[in-house]
Design a protein that fits this description.
Radius of gyration: 25 Å
Structural class: alpha+beta
CATH class of the largest domain: Mainly Beta
CATH architecture of the largest domain: Sandwich
CATH superfamily of the largest domain: Cupredoxins -  blue copper proteins
Number of strands: 10
Number of domains: 2
Strand order of the largest sheet: 3-2-1-5-8
Distance between the termini: 47 Å
CATH topology of the largest domain: Immunoglobulin-like
């Protein structure tokens, strides 16, 4: 029932990550509550128009209504909202921010947002990132990679197209080169602000093969719409390994043209 309401009434996009259904269910429950309130208040409005029309109640009553139904109704709404917050929303939030996969068990990616594109960096076949230095960050070296560190020679940097294997947790370390951006993966039900000077972790586990759009959920300048030019490509582990191998050693810093 929840899925039917989500897809046919709310027209939510496809889900492509583990845990996405929990977020969809929360949105469905919120809309159920809003629908109940809308129908309830509409019926009450019609009742008031009928009950207090001029023919039925020509004179105002200074005492007003003495019914306790409004108080009970308000209490029921507060309890429903508390249940949505405490029983559903907070556990989803806690799971998202407190429980990150171990790096050795995940696909680890550094993502650097910039006006107006997405840069991503992977460790190469040795599984180790090369050292970084903030003083080295430039238009041609958005991650500040130290060229003297041999561990970074096989690192992979890509521009606007991020590949991940299906069924394996993805651990993203997100930052921004310039202004505040916000990484939004609609199909994964993931949104996280990218803030200059901070490296913020976020995670998802892809469950569907395909190519999914990346969006920016923060107005980041005149070219904000161009941020939708990035994509997440979910592929089999074999195809991902082959792709990573083909890119390894080509860690030339990406830049936006």
């Amino acid at each position: 029932m929840n899925d039917w309401f989500a897809y046919h009434i709310l027209c939510l996009p496809e889900r492509a990550a583990a845990g996405a259904k929990l977020i969809d269910d929360l949105m469905v429950y919120v809309h159920y509550l809003m629908l109940a309130l809308f129908v309830g208040w509409s019926l009450y409005f019609v009742y008031v128009l009928w009950r207090f029309n001029a023919r039925r109640a020509a004179a105002a009553d200074h005492e007003g209504s003495t019914s306790k139904i409004p108080k009970y109704t308000e209490l029921a709404v507060v309890l429903a909202e508390a249940w949505l917050l405490i029983a559903i929303a907070l556990p989803i939030w806690a799971k998202s921010v407190d429980k990150f996969p171990k790096p050795e068990e995940a696909t680890v990616i550094q993502i650097m947002a910039q006006q107006f594109a997405w840069n991503a960096r992977y460790p190469g076949v040795d599984g180790k990132f090369g050292q970084q230095n903030m003083k080295l960050i430039s238009d041609n070296n958005v991650f500040g990679v130290d060229p003297a560190d041999p561990a970074g020679k096989d690192d992979v940097q890509v521009f606007n197209e991020i590949h991940v294997p299906i069924g394996k947790p993805v651990l993203i370390y997100l930052s921004s080169k310039d202004v505040i951006h916000s990484l939004k993966l609609v199909a994964m039900r993931l949104t996280q602000d990218a803030i200059p000077g901070l490296r913020i972790p976020c995670t998802f586990t892809p469950t569907k093969l395909g190519r999914f759009q990346i969006e920016c959920a923060q107005l980041c300048g005149n070219g904000h719409a161009a941020m939708a030019g990035g994509f997440i490509v979910v592929q089999s582990q074999k195809d991902f390994d082959a792709w990573l191998q083909s890119k390894s050693g080509s860690a030339a810093p990406a830049s936006f043209e």
